[in-house]
Design goal:
The chain has 208 residues and is of the alpha+beta class. The protein has two domains: 77 residues, Nucleic acid-binding proteins (OB fold (Dihydrolipoamide Acetyltransferase, E2P)), CATH 2.40.50; 124 residues, Recombination protein O, C-terminal domain (de novo design (two linked rop proteins), Up-down Bundle). It is built from six helices and five strands; from the N terminus they run E-E-E-E-E-H-H-H-H-H-H. A five-stranded mixed beta barrel has the order 1-2-3-5-4. Strand 2 and strand 3 form a beta hairpin. The longest helix is centred in the last third of the chain and has 18 residues. The N and C termini lie far apart (46 Å).
């Protein structure tokens, strides 16, 4: 193991034993990692309840090449309590985190994707989520990972605009364009992530 400081977004957590926690992290420097936080549920001084999905943190870690790295200390970098309301924004942020966890390899740096996820979380802390925001995130994620579908249909022009702009919330969809985009993105994501994500059904209900 080697000590290192990382900027990270918490993707998911699992309680382990009586007070420990295993944390899935998406780091700017190393991509997706898994960390072990000893006594995370008991030590307010070291972790302060910050190891929760969608929180952006500065971590002090003992990094391990394979398996669980050890999380020693965390500081808030962008813990956004505003994401708890409205519920649609929290649901989209959780879905985005789960999608990143499902589609990214472990230990492979993806700084563009990290910045995309961080930008979405920041945006959702200030704005209510819309179906178009989900499309924006999904098409850019697929593009970064090399899974971008063909966009030659007239109803997919907004997706092309999503790839050309760096501004979340800046692209509008008609009802027909949104339907076509959602269907295409769902097919493409399902081909690389066959297991339905836990957060997907909840998000579908809220953004219907």
């Amino acid at each position: 193991m080697r000590p290192e400081q990382c900027q990270a977004i918490v993707l998911s957590t699992v309680n382990y034993g009586e007070s420990d926690r295993i944390v899935s992290l998406f780091t700017l420097e190393h991509g997706r990692l898994r960390g072990f936080a000893k006594a995370a549920r008991a030590s307010r001084k070291r972790f302060g309840g910050l190891l929760e999905p969608t929180n952006r943190l500065q971590l002090q870690m003992n990094l391990k090449e394979e398996g669980l790295s050890r999380i020693e200390r965390v500081e808030a970098y962008g813990c956004l309590s505003a994401l708890r309301e409205p519920l649609e924004s929290l649901a989209l942020a959780l879905y985005a985190c789960e999608l990143v966890e499902a589609l990214t390899p472990e230990g492979h740096p993806l700084p563009r994707l990290y910045r995309l996820l961080a930008a979405l979380i920041d945006y959702l802390a200030a704005e209510p989520a819309r179906p178009a925001d989900r499309c924006f995130f999904e098409i850019n994620l697929l593009n970064i990972l090399g899974y971008r579908p063909l966009l030659d249909d007239q109803y997919l022009q907004p997706l092309s605009r999503c790839l050309r702009t760096g501004s979340i919330g800046g692209v509008s969809f008609s009802d027909a364009e949104l339907f076509a985009a959602q269907r295409l993105l769902e097919q493409q994501i399902s081909s690389h992530c066959p297991n339905r994500l836990k957060s997907r059904s909840f998000l579908d209900e809220l953004l219907r």
